[in-house]
Amino acid sequence: LSGGMIAFVPQAYFAWRVFQYSGARFAEQIARASYAGEIAKFLLTVSGFALVFALLRPLEAWAVFAGYGGMLIIKVTGSWLLLR
């Protein structure tokens, strides 16, 4: 669960950040929000792993990485299906 949340929360923040604008007149704001969202997504992911490994005991590291990897596979597969 913690690995899945490490993948889900940053992606949800990124989506919220980028999709708060729409339309051609907001192209500059959308681009700026994309860059800021990617940076925040990276920092949230790193912070999530740091918090999980620092605070959760007992911890099965393989399970954390399996949950994270599973969510990434779901994200990639879902994106592929949407673009098809």
Description:
By secondary structure, the chain is mostly helical. Helices cover about 80% and strands about 0% of the residues. The chain is flat, with a radius of gyration of 15 Å. The protein contains 3 helices and no strands. α1 (about 1-20) runs antiparallel to α2 and α1 runs parallel beside α3 (about 60-84). The chain has helices spanning about 1-20, 25-55, 60-84. The model has no long low-confidence stretch (mean pLDDT about 90).
How would you summarize this macromolecular structure in one to three sentences?
The chain is mainly α and 84 residues long. Helices cover 82% and strands 0% of the residues.
Label this structure with key terms.
mainly alpha, single chain, 82% helix, 3 helices, 84 residues
